[in-house]
Amino acid sequence: MGSIPLGDGPGRVAVQIDPSRAFLAGRQIRRPVTVEPKREPDGSWVDVEPLGNLVADADLQRLRPLERERSLQRETRTIPIVFCHLADPVASGLVPRLDRPGGNTTGFPLYEASLGGKWLELLSEIAPGLKRAAIMFNPDINPVSVYFMPAFERAARSLKVEAITAPVHDDAEIETAIIALGREPGGGLVVMPEAFTSTHRASIISAAARNNVPAVYGGAYFAREGGLLSYGVDAVDLFRRAAVYVDRILRGAKPGELPVQFPAKFEMIVNLKTAKALGLTVPQSLLLRADEVIE
Fold first, then answer.
1. In the sheet where 13-17 sits, what is the strand order?
2. How many CB atoms lie within 10 A of CB 128?
3. Contact 270, 290 (CB under 8 A)
4. Which of these, 18, 224, 192, lies nearest to 110 by C-alpha position?
C-alpha cells in the first residue's frame, strides 16, 4: 500500500493504492482506490512522493497534460486511461465525443470554456471602474488560452470592457504587461491557471499590488498568497470523481461507455486585505458567495 500525488500545486490529492491495473492522470495505479486529501496541521498540502515502481514510464511524469495522455494512448488501446487534467478532450483529439468517448479513454476535464467569461465578470464586479482587462498566459505552453478566449471576449463586449491579450514568457514580460495596465485607472487582469503562471505567481501578485491593478486568478493558491480574488475548479472534488470512475472500470465498466464529465464544483476566495490595499470595497453580494474570505 502506498500513495501517489494527483494534480499539480496545492490542489493535489493522495491516492491510496493496492493491486490491479489502471491509469489515472498518467500514473499506473492499483485497486482498490480511495482518495484522501493530505494536509499539514497548518493547512498546507503534504507533498507525497510518487512510487516509481508503479509508474508505467518515468518519462510520463515529465510530460505536459495531453502529451502524457497521448503517449499512453500510443502505448495501449486496451488498458483503461482516466484523465483529469485537460481542457478540451474532443478538440485535442483525445476522444471523439463526450457522451460516449469510445476506446479506452474517458475522464474529467479540469477546465470549462465558460470560465473565461466568469473571471472577467467577477473582475468587473469587484472592480466596478473596469475599462480594460488583459488575460495573461504563456503562449508557448498553454494552448488552453484559445479555449477560454471566446467566452472572455463575449463577456468583454457585454461589459463594454476592452479585451487585451497579455502573452508572457518570463518575469520581465509579466512586469511590463502589468505596468501598462496600471498606467491609467480602469485596468484589470485575469490570470489563466497554468503551470507557468503558477510558478511565477509571486511575481504576478507583487506586480499587481505595486501597480494597483486588480486581478482575478484561476487557482485558489493565488488568493491565499495575496491575490485579490480566485475562482476555479475544486480539484479535490475532480480527482475524487476520477477515482470513482477507476473503481467502476475495475469492477467491469467500459471506459468508452462512461461519459466525459466536466467540473461540477467550483470555489471562490476573496482576499479582503488585498482589496483594502487596492482601495476596493468588496460588494456584500460577492462576499456572501465566496467559499473563503481572507481578512
1. 2-6, 13-17, 34-36
2. 9
3. yes
4. 192
Supply 119's cell numbers.
Answer: 473571471
Q: Give the model's pLDDT for residue 133.
A: 98
Q: Can you tell me which residue has the cell 483594502?
A: 276
**Sheet arrangement for strand 162-167:** 162-167, 132-137, 187-191, 215-217, 229-233, 266-271, 292-294
Strand runs labelled E in 141-280: 162-167, 187-191, 215-217, 229-233, 266-271
Mean pLDDT by 10 residues, the chain (295 residues): 38 36 42 42 41 41 66 84 84 90 92 93 97 94 75 96 95 98 96 91 98 96 97 92 93 95 95 97 97 96
Amino acid at 267: E
Grid coordinates representing 202 are: 509571486
pLDDT at res. 63: 57
* pLDDT (0 to 100) of residue 65: 63
- C-alpha closest to that of 215 among 150, 114, 130, 117: 130
**DSSP state at residue 24:** E
Report the alpha-carbon distance of residue 68 to residue 32 in Å, rounded: 23
Provide the Cα torsion 230, 236, 242, 244; round to 10°: -140
Cα–Cα distance, 135 to 163 (Å, whole number): 8
